[in-house]
User: What shape does this take?
Amino acid sequence: MAKNGITAVRVEPLAKKLNVTKGSFYWHYKGRGDLLAQIIQRWRNRSTSAIIERLSGASLSPKERLKELFLLPAKRNQKAGAAALEQAIRNWAQHDKSVKEVIDEVDSHRLAFIAGNFKALGNDDDEAELKAMRFYCAMQGIAVLGKPQDSQKINRIFDSLF
Assistant: This one.
């Protein structure tokens, strides 16, 4: 999916690539729709819920939590396909209303977490929401551009968001 988009996610080629029968595939999934639903659910959990839980549970200041979050796309770009998967899912959402709803929910959840940290830093609601949007756009932009950034530059971008 990260390489070729949602249209490349097909039962027969996947079964062949994984060296399993189509029958074995259908043992685990009711069909392609079930596979796609599980893909989007797993992405939501791994890329949002698990990260927010981990950062919320860490003994970090709000600014340290935001920095850890901000650095994730740069770290993910170093791993093959992680940023590409997010982009592929966002592309998929342009053609699938149910996936768009998941994307909207994920973005709202992420923005609420970011805004909560800005509030904890003393910003009022409006300012926290504005800073959260700017922060999120910068963070996502770094991932979408996919350009290697040195850590000093990433840190300067992060500091400019406060």
In short: DSSP finds eight helices and no strands in the chain. The chain has a mean pLDDT of 87. The longest helix spans residues 32-57. The chain has one domain: 6-160.
